[in-house]
Amino acid sequence: MRRLRIRDVMTPDVRSVRRTTPVKDVAVILAGRHVSAVPVVDDERTVVGVVSEADLLPKQVPPGRWALRRSRARYGARTAEQIMSAPARTIGADESIVEAARVMTHEHMKRLPVVDRYGKLMGIVSRSDLVALFVRDDESLREEIVRTVFVEVLMLSGKQAEAAVDITDGVATLTGELERKSLVPIAVALTRRVPGVVDVVDHLTFASDDTHLKPTEPTNRGILHR
Question: What sequence ranges are listed for the domain BON (predicted)?
Answer without folding.
Answer: 137-208
